[in-house]
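Internal tracking record. Fields below are filled automatically when a chain is submitted to the structure queue. Please do not edit lines marked as system-generated. If the sequence contains nonstandard residues, flag them in the REMARKS field before resubmitting.
Queue: standard
Priority: normal
Entity type: single polypeptide chain
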Amino acid sequence: MNETTQEILKDHCPPMEKTNPFLLSRQNKYYTIDAGVVTSDPMLIGVLQAHKSCVSVIAWQVLSAGSSKSSLLLATGCSDGSVKIWLGNIEGLNQCASGEVPFALVAVVATDLSSPVSSISLAIPAQSQHEVSLAIGRVSGSLEIWIWNASSNKIEIFSAWHAHDQVVTGLQWAMDGYCLFSCSQDNSARCWISHENHLEEIFMHSNFPELRESADLSELSDRCYGLTLAPGEQMIAVVRSLDLNLLNQMYQVRTQKAVVEFIWIGGQFVGIPLDRSIDICSSQSTDLSSSNLMWWGSNILWSLKKYENVEKRLVIWDVVAVLQELKKSAPAFLETLVHSWVSVLLSGDPQCVSIDAPSRSMHDMMPYVSTRKLHLLNIMCRKVMVSIHTHHGPGAENGNEETTDFWSTLLVRSETELRERLVGFTFAAVLKRTAYLFNGTSTENCWFPVGVAQMDSWVTMNYDGQVHDQLQSIRSKIKDLGSRIDGYSDVESCPYCSSPVHFESPDVAICGERHTLPRCRASMILCSVVQPLWHCVCCGGTVNKLLPESFFTMQASTMHDEGSLDLSAASVPLCPFCGILLQRSMPAFLLSTSPA
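SYSTEM-GENERATED OUTPUT FOLLOWS
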């Protein structure tokens, strides 16, 4: 499985349910059979002579440090106990010739310890972008924290202590360097919080209702082999080896060698400041205390705020899983929490949006919201809030139709804005591409917009006061071009019976012989029946033509400004309405019979 395939699977595969510690597979109807985004084969660009002995571990991190150009940090640990930090130019990596590696040595850890390095983790604290935190785990069980200052190019030790009784097998910074997780072959996983001039251990507990029936893996496992942090940083996953003497010799020993334990960490203190704006009138759950709810809310809001940055890949399955569980155990708290987040998301002013606010006022705010925020809003509404009232948990009020209508209306309004933004983006791209052709500019590597005729039909259907004036204006320019637009065609036929297909919906179509056909959510054209399609596991949409990444980085509705539009060819399969990585579905006859 290549790295791109792993990223696509990671975006959509939720954590495994812990009803059985030996159950390591999960049913999922979507499978990735080809990445569709790899444009060239891997190429060796050079060899870096980092140490004189065996390099045991490496770690990467991107360093911005206030510069417009980001750099790449590389930390290398050696079996002789030494650690080095290298600084590389990202643009140089893409342009360098074979044998010329653009990495420069910037720091060396000076220590008398000769214990081999077993794990490394890098972090750039949010409070200081010029300082890099380097965590070093050793075979002896000791942990060290070093601080490298990118401005002064100096590295100093922050703290060192004996953390584990055996080899440190995993290290992971979390919450922008506020806390550090470690695991060891002594079968322990621990959390460390920065306090004054050293790190202090805090007890890890999940306090999550769904984990009550989980097995106690400490009685079944004999060591930890590694850990990783979930994308939304609400949980960690620890790989544990199983004690063969405690397994069934007939069945379990033959098939089970290790398990992955998911530990929820969002309901405890993890170093970040507590958000005291969250209103908790009383404990609304028999399983979660008011303090637990406060930490869950604070950590979830912190995570969602981080995802407003378009450079962070939109992978939030752990955040969604937490919210879906809270809707069962504390629905009133969830309603308050998400409502508070939406208020700030849309306007920056918590008083501007409320359940009682007119839907039209919310619609007026949408054009000024970034595309990434609209994607976040769609995911939260669709996966959490719209379904919350179909399953009433403890304390939920039956028949709260007003609240249900609020979230449903919010979902519709946001998708309408994204639809208009998509149409305007395509129209602007057509105008810019036409200008390129008129001026003799090459369009070889430019994205080719399709579905213009279908989008024009959609605008016509929604013209009477339902689309923004900007879209109406740019549409008039498209109408003037007419047939001069490359690929402009409103004539579509059914691939099964060849009967004409009229445009009635941007998502589906029905031909004259009553065949139901899917439309591409990105272009509105009929999807091909011979080529593999992309699917969104959030909204269920189908995508046949991909969009360039510039659509997903729009800060507001700028559909009228075709001059600054980036027409780089599409490369990453992202859902235009959810922003997450798309997947391909595999035909049933191609599925493997292997349970793995």
